[in-house]
Design goal:
Layout lengths: L1 H46 L2 H6 L3 H8 L6 H29 L4 E7 L3 H9 L14 E7 L2 E7 L14 E7 L3 H19 L5 E7 L20 E7 L10 E4 L16 H5 L4 E8 L5 H11 L6 E6 L8 H12 L1 E6 L8 H8 L3 E5 L19 H5 L5 E3 L5 H9 L3 H40 L1
Parallel strand pairs: 1-3, 1-4, 4-5, 5-6, 6-7, 8-9, 8-10, 10-11, 11-12
Antiparallel strand pairs: 2-3
C-alpha cells in the first residue's frame, strides 16, 4: 500500500515537472517564433517581395506591398494641394495688387490734330474713344501702358488755347503733307512752344504725317537738337531725317480720315473661300505704273477673277457705299494689288493686312527725297521690310500673270495658313510699334525729368 502511494506521488511529481518544462518551452521559444513571423510579415508588406506579387493579383494588396500604407495619406495629399493652391492664389492676388497700385512714373497726353492720330490710338494702342460717334466735336480716351498713363483728345473743337490741360508731357500729332496743312501745324507748334516757355509743359514729341516726297525741312527748327523744343519726332515714309536717336520712322497706317475701321479677326476672315484672286480699287494716274497694271489685267486670262474698279480722279472722301465696296473687295480677295502712287507706301497696304489679303507691293522708290540717306540703301518701305512683312514684292507688273497663275493653283488650306501668317504678323507689328513708342517716350521724358 505504501509502495503504491509512493509510486503515485512520484508519477504526479514527474507529470508536474514535464508540464512545467513544456510550459517554459512554449513561453520562451514560442514567443520568439511569433516575433519572427510577425517581423517577416511586416517586412513582406513593406518590401513588396516578388513572391508576394507573384501570388497576389489583387490591386489593393499589390499596392500595399509596394509602399507602406498610410490610412491618412489621401487626406494629407489633399491638404498639401490645398495649401499649395492657397499659396499660389495669394501670390497671384499680391502680384495683381502690386500691378494695380504700381506707381505711374509718367503722364502723357496725345493731341490728335491729324487723322493718323486715330491709327496710333485705336489701331496700335487699341484704345477706346468717347463718344463713339466719329462726327463728334470732341472725343477722348485714356489707358495705362508700361509706366505711363496716356490720355488722348481729338476732334474739331480741339483748338490752340481753347482747352485746358494739366499734363506736363504732350505728344502732338500733326499733318505736314502740303502747304495748307503745314501752316495749320505751325500754329500748333507755336502754341506748344508758348506753353514750354511758360513752363506749363516740360516735354514734347511729335508724330508727323510727312510729305510724300519727304520734304519736311520746315520742322527742323523746332527739333531740340537744332535749338527747338521737340525732343522726339516720329515721321511717316522713308525720311532721310530718320536716325533712330531722336527721329524715328512711323507707319502710314489705314485711312482713318475715310473712317476705315478696326477689323477684328474672325473665323470667316480666316477660313472662308474667297471668290477673287485679287483686287484693285483706285485712281489711275496718267503716265504711271497703274496704267501698265490696268493694261496687264485687261489682257490676262485671269482678269475676270479679279475685282477691279478704276477711276480717273482721286476722291478724298468715301461714301458709305464706296467704303463698303472697298471692304468687301479686301475681304473677298486673296491678293490686294498695291501699285505706287505719289509714294510707294500707301494706306492700301495696311488695309489689306487688316482683312488678311496679301499685299502685292510694287517695290520701287518714288521721286523725291525719300530714302536718300548715306547710312542705308535707297529702298522703299524700310520699316515694313525690317520687321519681316510677309508681302509679295515685285519690281514690274509684268510679273503679275505668273503670280495669279500660281495663286489659282493654291488650295484653300494653303491660303488659310498664309492668312494666319499675315494677320499674326500684322498684330505683332502693331504690338512692337506700341512697345517701342512707349519705351522711347519713357526713356527720353523720364531721363530729362531727372536731369531737370
Amino acid at each position: 500500500m505504501r509502495i503504491t502511494r509512493k509510486r503515485l506521488c512520484s508519477a504526479l511529481i514527474a507529470t508536474y515537472c514535464l508540464f512545467s518544462l513544456y510550459a517554459a518551452y512554449s513561453v520562451f521559444f514560442g514567443r520568439r517564433r511569433s516575433r519572427q513571423n510577425a517581423a517577416a510579415s511586416l517586412q513582406g508588406l513593406r518590401g513588396g517581395t516578388a513572391q508576394g506579387k507573384g501570388r497576389r493579383g489583387n490591386r489593393g494588396e499589390s499596392s500595399l506591398m509596394n509602399e507602406e500604407w498610410n490610412p491618412w495619406e489621401a487626406d494629407e495629399k489633399n491638404e498639401q494641394l490645398n495649401v499649395q493652391h492657397r499659396h499660389e492664389t495669394s501670390l497671384q492676388m499680391l502680384k495683381k495688387k502690386i500691378f494695380q497700385k504700381r506707381k505711374i512714373d509718367l503722364k502723357v497726353q496725345i493731341w490728335g490734330k491729324a487723322a493718323i492720330g486715330l491709327y496710333l490710338w485705336q489701331h496700335i494702342f487699341e484704345g477706346l474713344l468717347e463718344p463713339a460717334d466719329v462726327a463728334a466735336q470732341w472725343r477722348e480716351g485714356s489707358l495705362k501702358a508700361g509706366r505711363t498713363h496716356f490720355s488722348f483728345i481729338t476732334g474739331p473743337a480741339l483748338h490752340p488755347g481753347y482747352f485746358s490741360s494739366d499734363v506736363k508731357n504732350v505728344v502732338l500729332v500733326l499733318n505736314g503733307r502740303e502747304a495748307a496743312k503745314i501752316s495749320f501745324a505751325t500754329q500748333w507748334l507755336l502754341y506748344t512752344k508758348t506753353l514750354v516757355d511758360t513752363q506749363k509743359l516740360q516735354h514734347v514729341a511729335v508724330v508727323l504725317l510727312g510729305s510724300e516726297q519727304c520734304n519736311n525741312k520746315w520742322i527742323d527748327p523746332y527739333l531740340k537738337r537744332n535749338g527747338g523744343f521737340v525732343e522726339l519726332l516720329f515721321t511717316t515714309y522713308d525720311s532721310p531725317r530718320i536716325n533712330e536717336e531722336d527721329v524715328f520712322q512711323w507707319p502710314l497706317g489705314v485711312a482713318t480720315y475715310r473712317n476705315f475701321p478696326v477689323v477684328e479677326p474672325s473665323w470667316s476672315l480666316l477660313h472662308d473661300e474667297r471668290p477673287f484672286l485679287c483686287n484693285f480699287l483706285g485712281t489711275i494716274y496718267k503716265n504711271s505704273s497703274r496704267e501698265i497694271l490696268m493694261d496687264i489685267l485687261k489682257h490676262d486670262k485671269n482678269n475676270k477673277l479679279c475685282w477691279v474698279t478704276a477711276r480717273e480722279e482721286w476722291k478724298p472722301q468715301e461714301t458709305n457705299e464706296s467704303l463698303k465696296n472697298y471692304q468687301d473687295a479686301l475681304l473677298q480677295s486673296d491678293l490686294t494689288l498695291c501699285p505706287i502712287g505719289v509714294n510707294t507706301e500707301c494706306y492700301r497696304i495696311y488695309e489689306a493686312c487688316s482683312y488678311g489679303s496679301i499685299p502685292v507691293v510694287e517695290d520701287v522708290m518714288t521721286p523725291g527725297d525719300c530714302g536718300k540717306t548715306a547710312a542705308s540703301p535707297s529702298t522703299p518701305l524700310k520699316l515694313l521690310k525690317n520687321m519681316g512683312a510677309p508681302f509679295i514684292f515685285i519690281k514690274d507688273w509684268k510679273e503679275l500673270p505668273a503670280i495669279l497663275e500660281k495663286e489659282k493653283n493654291m488650295n484653300l488650306q494653303e491660303k488659310i495658313q498664309r492668312r494666319k501668317t499675315l494677320l499674326g504678323w500684322y498684330q505683332n507689328f502693331k504690338g512692337q510699334l506700341r512697345e517701342k513708342f512707349i519705351k522711347i517716350l519713357e526713356r527720353s521724358f523720364l531721363m530729362n525729368k531727372r536731369r531737370g
